[in-house]
Please model this.
Amino acid sequence: MYAQLVETGVKRLKTLDEMAPEERAFQEKIDAEIKIEAKNWMPEAYRQTLVRQISQHAHSEIVGMLPEGNWVTRAPTLKRKLQLMAKVQDEAGHGLYLYSAMETLGADRDVEIGKMLAGKAKYSSIFNYPTLTWADMGAVGWLVDGAAIVNQVVLQRTSYGPYSRAMVRICKEESFHQRQGYEMLLTMMRYGTPAQKEMVQDAINRFWWPSLMMFGPSDADSPNSAQSMAWKIKRQGNDELRQRFIDQTIPQLELLGCTVPDPDLKWNEETGHYDFGEIQWEEFYQVLKGNGPCNRERLEARCKATKEGAWVREAAVAYAKKQQAKRSAA
Ligand code: BYC
Model:
């Protein structure tokens, strides 16, 4: 596997023979499926790649609260409101575990969050799309969390111990999120009015392609994949995970009685997978550049929350200092 990556990766990777002894021992540990822990030696580039990926992941969880938080006050029933609130709170928890995992690599939480607020750090492209109707809550749960799980189940086996352990609980909660989204759409499709059914189809039409983009560019255009896979930070390529998501989602789509906006989607008997149409990568890169429908709005909301929550953080620090002083005096 490693030798193959050396040859086919976007960037040429070092062979084991070309590595310094410490780096070679590190790679052999990875190849033997031994987890890397916070205090172990690691190449600086491995550390930086993890800080990049885990911080982006954490920012995605926190920004990901916004499109759904938008609907908490407008949920149609008390039960739906409770479900949505629980889901949004779970996302906050995921962000916090992930920032903690990132801190074990020596990164500073405030610095990394500062980069996101300044528009210099990425978060998942999907959260730059608006949630226009209640059916979007179902589509986000089913498609967005569904795509997130396909990627994150694999990350439970990532080579960095603290990240892999954080993913275990996150996956359990994401699985509940996916189910609640699907159940919501199924209820609307089975018992809803024609207008509600139309709303479901419209939500799927808008979220389908952006959900496929969540897996990142095609492997051939992914600058980080080859090295991340050699280090087993990523265990599977972006294309393979995207295909897995499509293959498991289409039967659920059929059960809903809906369609996706892709005339080229069809089952391929030979490959045992669904073929699908071309993804509009130009749209993806525009969203990454800050030109998506909601990029500005999302960053403004996070900056406002950071400013307005400053007094809470200051009070918490003052309280902790007071408690510390009391303990020292005792
Ligand atoms: N959006 O070389 P590549 C969730 C960037 S949300 C934005 O393939 P990599 C949830 C990529 O960062 C899901 N940027 O990169 C929360 C790289 O840029 P830089 C969040 C993207 O890292 C609330 C460049 O494109 N999940 O869970 O090897 C409610 C080239 O890409 C995206 C995670 O973060 C994108 N979609 O692979 C509901 C999972 N795709 O940094 C749900 C952890 C790519 O070189 N992350 N880029 O400037 C990963 O698994 C990997 O980072 C990715 C990308 C597969 C996303």
Q: What stands out?
A: Residues 72 and 149 are 23 Å apart (CA to CA). The chain has 14 helices and two strands. The radius of gyration is 21 Å. The pocket of benzoyl coenzyme A is lined by residues 52-53, 56-57, 60-61, 64, 91, 122, 124-125, 144-145, 148, 151, 213-217, 222-225, 228, 234, 238, 288 (CB under 6 Å).
